[in-house]
Design a protein that fits this description.
By secondary structure, the chain is mainly alpha-helical. The chain contains five helices and no strands.
Amino acid sequence: MTKRYSKEFKEKVVQYYHDHEGLGYLSVARVFDIPSDETVRTWIKKVEKEGSNAFDSKPRKSKIERKKQIKKNTKPISADKWEDPKTMAERIAFLEAENAYIKKLIQLREEGKK
């Protein structure tokens, strides 16, 4: 399970990082007993991007709202993006041949291991 850190703790870690410029993310993570330096890096980048209120609580979107947002941002492929049938048939034939080649290669490797 993911460990949750308080807003105050995150701010303390970020402040410590800025006060001790020579230390890297890993060193700061070790000082505060944080398992991953990536966590520290994420917090620092978030403060750089959002400022001092980076860790303020923000209401989360419901699943339905997130799905609507995804649907809204997803655009269907227009007809001019499709290739003509002949080109598509050639591409399918090429991919099928490539697939058969890879399967044969795997089969030969397996036989060679025996």
